[in-house]
Amino acid sequence: MSEYRLPTIKEIAKRLNVSVSTVSRALRDHPSIGLVTTMRVQNVAKELGYEVNRSAIHFKERKTYSIGVIIPNLSEPFFSSALTGIEDAVEANNYNVIIGQSLESFEREKRIVENMKDHRVDGILVSLTKETSSYEHFESLKKYNIPVVFFDRIPSKKDINYVACNLVSGMLQAITKLVSLGHTRIGLINGPAKLAATLQRLEIYYKCLKAHNLQLDHEIIVSTSLSKADNRRAMSHLLDIAEPPTAAIVFNDYVLLDCIATVKSRGLVINKDMSFVSFANLPIWEYMDSVPLASIEQFAYQQSSMATDFLFQLIKYAGNPTGAEAPLLQHIIDSEMIEYGRPEGQ
Amino acid sequence: MSEYRLPTIKEIAKRLNVSVSTVSRALRDHPSIGLVTTMRVQNVAKELGYEVNRSAIHFKERKTYSIGVIIPNLSEPFFSSALTGIEDAVEANNYNVIIGQSLESFEREKRIVENMKDHRVDGILVSLTKETSSYEHFESLKKYNIPVVFFDRIPSKKDINYVACNLVSGMLQAITKLVSLGHTRIGLINGPAKLAATLQRLEIYYKCLKAHNLQLDHEIIVSTSLSKADNRRAMSHLLDIAEPPTAAIVFNDYVLLDCIATVKSRGLVINKDMSFVSFANLPIWEYMDSVPLASIEQFAYQQSSMATDFLFQLIKYAGNPTGAEAPLLQHIIDSEMIEYGRPEGQ
DNA sequence: GTACGCTACGCAACCGTTTGCGTGCAACGA
DNA sequence: TCGTTGCACGCAAACGGTTGCGTAGCGTAC
Questions:
Q1: Residues A231 and A258 in one domain
Q2: Which residues of B touch A74 (CB under 8 A)?
Q3: Is the CB atom of residue B144 positioned under 7 angstroms from any atom of strand D?
Q4: Which of A18, B127, B243, B334 has the fewest C-beta atoms lying within 10 Å of its C-beta?
């Protein structure tokens, strides 16, 4: 509680008997201020421990030098590593990161957007909740001139800025591997229809089967709401059909954890009776006894740091009041298969 | 890009031919403004889509209505759940959360503190890095009147605000359970000496052994730097001594994952040849084949939300320029043992 | 001697809101 | 009729810094 008020530009001015404008300019090495004056000002500033009051600048410049990040759930390694990507990319620009976890709740997502809008963040990065299917809350941000970049979980719209991950590349590698191991009946345990990722995975699945001339059988395509119970139900369903698949593509590693438990509870052996390929690349597999043959890495860090770069481009654009519309920034990163499995036991 | 400028209080005033002060008061239902005027102002405000410019208020009030959170690593469930606790507690106060991951780097921690100071956050919540053993960077915040509350990983100092977790309660439960299962030689795989938690665990270990009249044997106390290799080394060391322990307390679940792998690689059976008790309560255990007998829950959410409450108390205190020194806010939460294990196989 | 240009600095407005204090006006009591 | 009171509102300063423009003083060229 020692110093209640920080020194201001005014006090420096008073001390030196110059005007505040001179001090302001001297501190920023403005050429129209003489060298002697500049030095004297800077010395006194240092002596007093002067620091600019950013709030004043924010106020005047109508910027807060902070960006909002809306993410479903930081307890998922994918997102926490995405956040690290954002932090690293933001640091260079001297910005702050305001965080909001939507916790997969659409309502919460809306509230967070509202709050960030109130706080006048300079831009927002978003990965959507599983529930989100309308995007008005983001569109209203245009009025406030707050740019938005989506990453990974992006809206099914065209006129947006985004960075996403192309799963085809990784999936093709994975199916090629499965085929090379002799699998011909490869199932799909997909996510909820709401998610863009679900449709995407389905399309990719079709594409990859076709690429390998494998028979398409709708019986071995199931979907889950991603709840624990439903994951198990989906897996059980696959095992119960007359001619079960010998391998399955699974929506993500979390679903897979449940699938593995289900398979094992039936006394079946992972990677022998049933092989898996999953998405997400959880760091825990190296500790697990039962692992997928492979997981498809979606590069959270790279996605989010590129999205952050996009956002800063848009922020610069928004700053220039050239009437010109900002360009759409869109990019798709290739996924990659990461091998884990030890096929056929051991 | 449609509306470049948001409507201000001035425009409302102009529209109604009243002064800005009247508008300002009317918007906040000030009693000295007539009912009619108040209504007219509020109507026009709604019509224009007026919203207060918080930057102006922040500037005037010298507050940013945001708090900083410095956390080692959000990829640890403990910390991501702590962050959720903070978000929930903050929401009620209409504050924002500015996040900074120190990634266990002391230098990074200092940089983050510096940045948050520049941004004039109203307060800071911290959980220290493993490296942090000097605290000047936090003490300098006093000059700026920015209160700090530590949680979980707290400095070894007396004059600080903190919330921490008392491990004695949980540990006592765990050792009682081990003893009831017949264990008498219980080892300790501890963390690096730098961490306060390490010393704490050691003291608790002593205390609990004594409480059960167990013999203290320094040979079965080892420590690890928390690196994967060192975790395995530590575990191997325990197994290699003449009379190995039949159970061990392990610093945390991450270390335990490595210990389990080490034990199994020797063909030994978890919870039969070697039983474990650990800290942290990772959500993954339910998917694992080999689990500790019990894990000691440290209540990240509760710790962090209480720390947040503390912080808001201090912020209020800092706002009142009563010369009075703020009180020290300190609290310790009891840990609890969570049982997982199925002793003696299955 | 006048006109001009350059250097080095000051003046004042501005960003949007809050708030202490002042004041005109009407009602009221004496 | 005059003084008092209270209501409803306006004035202006303040928060800290930036910036367009104005200008004093000086040197220089004609």
A1: yes
A2: 74, 80, 83-84
A3: no
A4: B243
> What is the arithmetic mean of pLDDT over A317-330?
74
> What's the rounded Cα separation, in Å, for the pair B74 and A75?
7
Q: How far apart are CA A253 and CA A278, in angstroms?
A: 6
Closest amino acid to nucleotide C20 (CA–C1'): B21
Q: Classify residue A339: in a domain, yes or no.
A: no
* SS3 assignment, position B39: helix
The end-to-end CA distance of chain A, in Å, is 64
Does one domain contain both B89 and B196? no
Which residues in chain B touch residue A84, judged by CB atoms under 8 angstroms apart?
Answer: 74-75, 101, 103
Supply the CATH number for residue B187's domain: 3.40.50.2300
Q: What is the mean pLDDT of chain B?
A: 89
Is B212 inside any structural domain?
yes
Other Cβ atoms within 10 Å of A258 Cβ, number: 23
For A223-278, how does the pLDDT look when each residue is reduced to its tens digit (9 = 90+)? Answer: 999 888 999 999 999 999 999 999 999 998 889 989 998 998 899 999 999 999 99
> Per the CB < 8 Å rule, is A101 touching B118?
no
Same domain, yes or no: B159 and B198:
no
Range of the domain at A231: 166-299
The pair of structure tokens assigned to A9 is 């530009």
Is strand D in 7 Å reach of the CB of B33? yes
Contacts of B6 in chain A (CB under 8 A): 144
Calculate mean pLDDT across residues A277-293.
Answer: 80
Q: For the segment B239-279, what is each residue's pLDDT rounded down to a tens digit?
A: 999 999 999 999 988 899 899 989 988 999 999 999 999 98
pLDDT at B92: 82
Residues A295 and A170 in one domain: yes
Integer Cα distance of A324 and A314 in angstroms: 12
Q: How many domains does chain B have?
A: 3
For residues B329 and B292, membership in a common domain is answered with: no
| B288 has a chain A CB within 8 A of its CB | yes
Contact by Cβ (8 Å): A112, B59: no
Say if residue B326's pLDDT is above 80.
no
Going by C-alpha positions, the residue among B140, B188, B197 that lies closest to residue B165 is B197
Does B120 touch chain A if contact means CB atoms closer than 8 Å?
yes
